[in-house]
Amino acid sequence: MALADNMMILRKKKELSQAELGKMIGTSGDVIGRYERGDISPSIEAVAKIADALEVSVDYLIGKTKMELDKSTMRRFEDISTLSEENKNFVLNMIDMALRDFKTKKAYAK
Fold first, then answer.
1. Residues 56, 62, 66, 67: is their CA dihedral positive or negative?
2. pTM exceeds 0.85 for this model
3. Any idea which architecture 2-61 has in CATH?
């Protein structure tokens, strides 16, 4: 039921009606309602379209991860993946450094 629940929560969060989401992915609001109730399961192609429309990863939509990545963050990860190994390692090291500093500050703030 993760897909159905996540779909409804995300749709409402984006203030979309079932009909609006249906139109965005090329189906009807009735079909979206049936997906959200768990009456029917969408095809993988429909799941991909729904994830795109709701601006989340398929993994998040189906409940495989709790990490909600917006399109901007996903685009950044895609850009990082196209870098040379040296540049990719540099960027990832900078992220690691920032995370370590954040965690350290958080630990000492207690």
1. negative
2. no
3. Orthogonal Bundle (1.10)
